[in-house]
TrEMBL record:
Phylogenetic classification of the source organism: Eukaryota, Metazoa, Chordata, Craniata, Vertebrata
GO cellular-component term (any): plasma membrane
GO annotation (BP), single: plasma membrane organization
Gene transcribed to yield this protein: Tlcd2
Species this protein is from: Pelecanoides urinatrix
Subcellular location: Membrane
Record-annotated TLC domain positions: 1-173
Protein name, UniProt field: TLCD2 protein
Amino acid sequence: SPRRFCLHPGLSEDLVGTHPPGAHSLVAVSVGYFLEDFVDMLCNQKFHQSWELLFHHSVVIVCFGIAVLLHQYVGFALVALLVEINSIFLHLRQILLMANLVHTTCYRLNSIINLGTYVVFRIATLAWMTRWLFLNRENIPSATYAVGTVGMAIMTPMNIILFYRLLRSDFFK
């Protein structure tokens, strides 16, 4: 989180080997969450409704799992967790839709906050992470670089498509 960069300035210089106390545990717990959510979706949703999220979760589980197992790239995974700040508003949007509260001020306000946090915490964070990978490619083992690059190549288009769907659904009906 941004606070982590203030409290642990070494993190901004080294996302590979440096991480603040508790960061490894946070990433490990996040892997557990994504695994649980993955299994829950497999058991309780139709595949055609959840395949994108299942795919997303698979990529996150692999990338975060590498960070947890190697005790490296934990800082990079922390940056990736910034994306989840937007998930609060994505989930609230889903709850409001299920409660049939689409035509309310609460839904409208959430839509605006959702879009703003989407741009800041999803699009900008993924762009920064892609840039960081590219700028540090000489210092990253080729296998890890490949996993990171493939992860970014999958996540970025998925998030741009979801952004387009949100714009179309909530602002250009």
